[in-house]
TrEMBL record:
This is GTPase Era. The gene is era. PANTHER family: GTPASE ERA, GTPASE ERA, MITOCHONDRIAL. HAMAP family: GTPase_Era. Monomer.
Length: 304
């Protein structure tokens, strides 16, 4: 939707929070209408705060897809959880996404306790409603609203787009008045280099869901515009052990070839140009304890 004039415009930030695999990245992509955040069956794939930008009526809504909130065990886990709650505290509104099939499990209850401390308008979004009976949905809605005073409740299927538009319209009316913060045609503040690395990481997880620990990371080393309009991209996949490197390469290099083909197709779509993608796999031991890696991901390095 386009902006009709410069009067009465609204702009604000909405933090999407929830447990891992609640469907935040799927919802963000559905709202934006394009991929800005990676989606994977592997938990904790969103590591940094990814912003997706949506225009609804005269409002510009900047959605912040935060890392999933869970009980942290490692240093990287702690950094991700701190980032998620920081995003919620800084937003104009907070939308809690719950997997309606899981209901009020231990993770959801822990989030609700902490959510009471955040003094921002709160919206409850029950996701995956196509997979649960309506009577159970209504019961879950009552239980959750008894624990936290939500301003609004929405029932959606992020995967099918059901209920997403109504949710977006409500948020548009809640944004503070003010000028838009980004150009009208911009859908994310993530640079293409970062999005390209995230897409390759998604394809990595899709291919090696069980065999690969989520600590693996991807960095875009080179992004070169060529005279014929195509783009040459070099990326490095970093793992912590040589055994993981062998898994990614696969027999005769077949696994990394398949990952590269899938990633190249999707990167070509967001770059709107033919892409020549070259993937390398390197072992970087204990990268989860390296402050520089955290800075590159936009995370604060947890001490101790």
């Amino acid at each position: 939707m386009t902006k009709t004039d410069d009067t009465n415009t609204r702009a604000g930030f909405v933090a999407l929070i929830g447990a891992p695999n609640a469907g935040k990245s799927t919802l963000l992509n559905a709202l934006v209408g394009s991929k800005v955040s990676i989606v994977s069956h592997k938990v904790q794939t969103t590591r940094t705060m990814v912003r997706g930008i949506v225009i609804e009526d005269n409002s510009q809504i900047i959605f912040v897809d935060t890392p999933g909130i869970f009980k942290p065990k490692r240093r990287l886990d702690r950094a991700m959880v701190t980032s998620a709650w920081g995003g919620a505290g800084d937003a104009d509104a907070v939308a809690l996404l719950l997997d309606s099939r899981k209901g009020l499990d231990e993770e959801a209850e822990a989030i609700l306790v902490k959510l009471n401390e955040i003094k921002r308008p709160k919206i409850l979004v029950l996701n995956k409603i196509d997979l649960i009976e309506r009577s159970r949905l209504l019961e879950l809605t009552a239980k959750v609203n008894a624990l936290v005073a939500f301003d609004h409740t929405f029932m959606v299927s992020a995967l099918k787009g059901q209920g997403v538009q109504d949710f977006c319209k409500q948020l548009a009316s809640m944004m503070p008045e003010g000028p838009w913060l980004y150009p009208e045609d911009q859908i994310s503040d993530a640079p293409l280099r970062m999005l390209a690395a995230e897409i390759t990481r998604e394809k990595l997880y899709e291919r090696l869901h069980q065999e690969l620990p989520y600590q693996s990371t991807v960095e875009t080393d080179q992004w070169q515009q060529r005279p014929d309009g195509s783009v040459r991209i070099e990326q490095t996949i970093f793992v912590e052990r040589d055994s993981q490197r062998k898994i990614i390469l696969g027999k005769g290099g077949q696994t990394i070839k398949a990952i590269g083909q899938a990633s190249r197709r999707e990167i070509s779509e967001i770059a709107e140009a033919p892409v020549h993608l070259f993937l390398f796999v390197k072992v970087r031991e204990n990268w989860g304890d390296d402050p520089q890696r955290y800075r590159e991901m936009g995370l604060e390095f947890p001490r101790g």
